[in-house]
Specification:
heterodimer, A: 8-stranded mixed β-sheet
């Protein structure tokens, strides 16, 4: 059963999924992706959290400050704030579940953020298509804006309507957030450590090129790097994450 | 200062939403924001969250809610979309009445959210207003002529005529496959009876409608004012405000367009608040 609530003085929104095993001492804290990737994976992460709880481990999802149901605007967000949000979410998850051990499950840039957190209670990092380089991610966000510009211009021509001279940005991000994102990467010491970290990738080349032994390609590929409307309910990825969690 | 709290509905209270409330809720009309397609209640691009909060600042109670099978609400088994939405609505309405008593209700929806809003409105007398983003529209007598003119005067179409013809010929053999996978076909649109019942009903209830059309609607809508005219209901144009933005895309991926949309909805909601307050809630 999902238990939604606001925490951190009502600044952050979270959902707790109680484990079917009341004695479970582990809680999975889901660090979601950002921007449109969150919309695309929201249902998948909701279903994954239910599956985690049904398999005997507590789960907790939350929204970073300035995103989704949490308070604030994206323009007010900083990397420091989001890292602090993960720590607050871990505290809340442990308090509500009674668990003492945490698994941080990070998706895309959520994985990048999760990998910065050092806490004795964190036993494992589970990463789904993690962004290994913030600088690369930032250039990808710029590429999304370029694609949106091209698509709007092309649509205006196809539809024979005047093209608007406006700023074609998916999100108008503050400079401090952009530079903060640029500077982040996943430390190799975490990514390469099979005892600490496991990565599930939808990129057929990722595991091989990054020479990770603790990495799985699920056999299905999709298009994170391109602007796309599709909602992702990627069952093989969810299964791979769940299987790894229950090892 | 607005407040936010969790909203649940359904047989087991598994349906989930978030309420944005003004400081004084004693007479506030309620705006229910439905899911857009498969997206969760906050989306697209957090539009429902930001708009819900702005509407609460104006004096409305804003509820963004996940219908069954969307976002955080579990799916119902063995039901059509229409049946599931109708059942969800009966629970949502009961839960709202328990919290606030009978109130005038408005429904906000994009795409399938607009479709569901029209279907709910057709059956529910307490729905007094609609904010529809890319709803279906009937074509008026001038639609085809305007559509043809737009195409014939488009230099890009002429330049690409060879490509267009080749593509159409290639697709002809696969026509059935194309139709069955089209986004439009996947929408569970309101039927003619839903449309008539909803908008005739709104006329009788002295309701109000804001309808915004983007480039997505060009296959059935190409002129501001067309929607009310094509419905053929005398006086409908007096209660329907139409906005036509052929440059904007269906889910508003550009922040500038989202801001423009929020300003438009806010302005409409502000100018109509006293009207909704004056309406009977039944």
């Amino acid at each position: 059963m999902i238990e939604p609530f606001f925490f951190d003085n009502d600044q952050l929104f979270g959902c707790y999924f109680a484990s079917s095993d009341a004695d479970s001492d582990t809680v999975v804290v889901v660090c979601p992706p950002l921007f449109d990737e969150y919309r695309r994976t929201y249902r998948a992460l909701s279903e994954l959290s239910v599956a985690i709880a049904e398999s005997g481990v507590h789960a907790f999802r939350f929204d970073y400050y300035g995103t989704a149901e949490s308070q604030g605007l994206l323009q007010q967000a900083t990397i420091g704030q989001w890292l602090s949000d993960i720590e607050k979410a871990m505290d809340e998850a442990k308090a509500v579940s009674g668990a003492s051990k945490v698994v941080l499950l990070g998706v895309r840039f959520g994985g990048t953020l999760a990998a910065q957190v050092r806490d004795d209670s964190v036993k494992t990092y589970l990463l789904w298509d993690p962004v290994t380089s913030g600088a690369h991610y930032q250039s990808w966000l710029d590429q999304v804006d370029d694609i949106l510009f091209q698509r709007h211009r092309s649509a205006a021509q196809d539809n024979n309507v005047p093209f608007e001279n406006i700023e074609y940005k998916n999100f108008d991000l503050p400079a401090a957030l952009v530079s903060g994102m640029r500077e982040l990467s996943i430390p190799a010491s975490i990514l390469n450590d099979p005892d600490q970290c496991f990565t599930v990738s939808s990129d057929p080349d990722f595991c091989e090129t990054s020479k990770l032994s603790n990495c799985a390609y699920t056999g299905l590929t999709y298009d994170w790097p391109y602007y796309h409307d599709g909602v992702i309910t990627h069952k093989p990825v969810l299964k791979a994450l769940l299987d790894r969690l229950l090892v | 200062m607005i407040k936010e709290r969790i909203f649940t509905y359904g047989e087991h209270q598994h349906g989930l939403g978030i309420l944005s409330e003004p400081a004084d809720t004693s007479s506030s009309p309620i705006i229910v924001m439905l899911n857009a397609g498969l997206s969760h209640r906050a989306e697209p691009y957090r539009l429902n969250v930001l708009l819900g909060r702005k509407l609460a600042e104006l004096g409305y109670i804003g509820l963004r809610v996940d219908l069954s099978g969307k976002g955080d609400s579990p799916a119902r088994e063995n039901m059509t979309n229409r049946e599931s939405v109708a059942l969800d609505w009966s629970f949502i309405k009961a839960a709202l009445e328990k919290l606030y008593g009978a109130r005038p209700i408005l429904i906000f929806g994009l795409c399938s959210g607009a479709d569901n809003g029209i279907k709910i409105c057709a059956d529910d007398p307490s729905v007094k207003g609609l904010i529809l983003l890319d709803p279906v529209s009937r074509q008026d007598s001038g639609f085809t002529k305007r559509d043809l003119y737009r195409k014939l005067t488009n230099p890009r179409k002429w330049l690409k005529m060879h490509n267009i013809l080749s593509r159409r010929l290639a697709k002809r053999g696969a026509r059935d496959d194309i139709d069955s996978s089209s986004t439009i076909k996947l929408r569970d649109e309101p039927n003619a009876s839903d449309m008539d019942l909803c908008f005739n009903g709104l006329m009788k209830k002295n309701g109000r409608v804001l309808a915004v059309f983007t480039s997505q609607a060009l296959y059935h809508y190409n002129s501001q004012g067309q929607f009310a005219v094509a419905m053929g209901i005398p006086g409908l144009d007096q209660i329907v405000e139409e906005v036509f933005w052929p440059n904007a895309k269906h889910v508003y991926p550009i922040e500038w367009h989202r801001n423009q949309l929020m300003e438009t909805v806010e302005s409409w909601a502000k100018s109509n608040l006293s009207h909704f307050l004056s309406l009977d809630a039944k």
